[in-house]
Specification:
Layout lengths: L1 E6 L2 E4 L4 E9 L7 E6 L6 E6 L6 E3 L7 E6 L4 E6 L8 E8 L12 E4 L3 E6 L1
Parallel strand pairs: 2-11
Antiparallel strand pairs: 1-3, 3-8, 4-5, 4-9, 5-6, 7-8, 9-10, 9-11
Amino acid sequence: QVQLVESGGGLVQAGGSLRLSCAASGRTFSSYAMGWFRQAPGKEREFVATISWSGGLTYYADSVKGRFTISRDNAKNAVYLQMNSLKPEDTAVYYCAAPRTLVVITTMLDEYAYWGQGTQVTVSS
């Protein structure tokens, strides 16, 4: 049983920044990789960033590389997504997710079994 709750979304102008947070409860948080995905209206849910259980490995979608940073604090059962230099095309509902099984790191959507409710990020031009 895993519960994930995102927060930190909102309305921001292009070029601005937001920091998303994901609070986790249930299974041992530190034992799992974590990921961020996003979904815009009429679009498929897409990978954004992932981080290994130890925080030692990270991977980003090319569209956000250099602008977004994923991090985690296992003592607080939390994962974060710092988003800088936001663009209108970043507008989407952002989801925190955890894999079904213990994996080091994964970018594959179908390997994630636990999802938060999402938080809306809207970037205006």
